[in-house]
Amino acid sequence: MLTIQFSENKRFPKKAVTIYEGIKLLYSEEQRIMAAKSSESVKIMIKGSTVIDEFSASIPLGKGYGQELISYVEQELLSNYPDNQNEIDQFVEELATSFADGRNGSPMPDNNVKEKKAKSTWNSKTVLVIFLIAFITVMGGILWFTFAGREFSKKVTPPAQTVTSQSAGEKQNDPSKKIVAALEKKSAIEVGNKFPEDHVLIVEYLVEKKKFKDLETFQDSFPTEEGAFNLAFYQEDWENVIKLQTTKLTKEYQAMLAHAYIKLRQPMEAEILNETLKSDTLKKEILETYKVNAVYKIREGKIDDAQTIQNKIKDSDLEELIETAKTCKDMISFFIKEKDAENQKIWTKRLENLGGEFISNENTKKDN
């Protein structure tokens, strides 16, 4: 089993972890460092491969490399060993398979399971006793307040007017309401000049109202991370969406970021984001993207790579397509031996055109 071990950075655990856990750790730290506009590095060592003895490198963090570990490893190997394409492809396939296995719930063995279970049992009993004591105490308190409160309520009148006036004051001081009221009367530029501390609120208003032309003008005068991110998303500049990644990474922004990864046919990164979001829509799009990637692998004649993806997503259409592709490759090999260039060309063309019905225009914007 492939494992990854970190060193030379105290934020990472020293113990070897699975590739899946390692990618999640790198992704989380990369997000933190990019949000802080800082930079760090961490040394990684990947062991357990059947292709190479080990892989070690120092990854710079804060530039996006930590979010795409497998791509980074592949680029490093190709840069240092350009003549070893086949071995590198096999190693990258091992990494992708290991990530998929971890994603499907294959935890590393723990030698202290029995000890943990014993402690857990003792703790559960202790917690149960404490809970019963707390429950009895709370119920007693509730009963006392029920009867005592009746007498108290007869003597004291609730200050309804005071509460109302406080609420009204809070509403008047609500900065978002103040900005909305101003934007309904004046342009975003005028409001931005008047409220220099509330530029992000102005961006949020313009995005909510889908006033992207106004947002573009506002961004020119008052540039913000949020404005740049939303504009890039609206303009479908997916690569820029990934590079920008605002410090305010709300769930909505995470979903937008996952969508950008899907558009760039990088389902693994979208899958990590969806671990938190748990969106059924994103999950469906991620599976479709894996499927499209497999179709491209088939068209390139990389049947084993397509099979690796199929092992993960288990798609009936893809399974049938892979079998057809194998037939095409067999026929191509046959006509090569027969030196029949015409039929070889026909079957090659058939292979290259397989799966066209599964490739939409949205998914063809980036080739693997």
What labels describe this entry?
368 residues, alpha+beta, single chain, 4 domains, 6% strand
Give the number of DSSP strands. Answer: 4
Low-confidence stretches: 106-129, 142-172, 361-368
What is the total domain count? Answer: 4
The strand order across the widest sheet is: 2-1-3-4
Largest sheet: 4 strands, antiparallel
Keywords: Membrane, Transmembrane, Transmembrane helix
Transmembrane segments: 126-147
Q: Could you write a compact summary of the structure shown?
A:
With 368 residues, the chain is α+β, with helices and mostly antiparallel strands.
Summarize the helices and strands and which ones pair or pack:
Elements: E1 3-7, E2 17-18, H1 19-35, E3 40-47, E4 54-61, H2 69-80, H3 85-103, H4 113-155, H5 160-173, H6 175-183, H7 188-194, H8 199-208, H9 212-221, H10 225-234, H11 238-244, H12 251-263, H13 267-277, H14 280-299, H15 303-313, H16 316-337, H17 341-352
Antiparallel strand pairs: 1-2, 1-3, 3-4
Helix pairs in contact: 1-3, 2-3, 3-15, 9-10, 10-11, 11-12, 12-13, 12-14, 13-14, 14-15, 14-16, 15-16, 16-17
Structure description:
This protein is of the alpha+beta class and 368 residues long. The protein folds into four domains: 3-103, no CATH class; 116-155; 175-247, no CATH class; 249-368, no CATH class. It is 67% helix and 6% strand. It contains 17 helices and four strands. Strands 2-1-3-4 form a four-stranded antiparallel sheet. A hairpin with a 6-residue loop joins strand 3 and strand 4. Helix 1 crosses helix 3 (85-103), helix 12 (251-263) packs parallel to helix 14 (280-299) and helix 13 (267-277) runs antiparallel to helix 14. The longest helix is centred in the middle third of the chain and has 43 residues, at 113-155. The radius of gyration is 29 Å and the shape is globular. Mean pLDDT is 81; it is low at 106-129, 142-172 and 361-368. Keywords: Membrane, Transmembrane, Transmembrane helix. The chain crosses the membrane at residues 126-147.
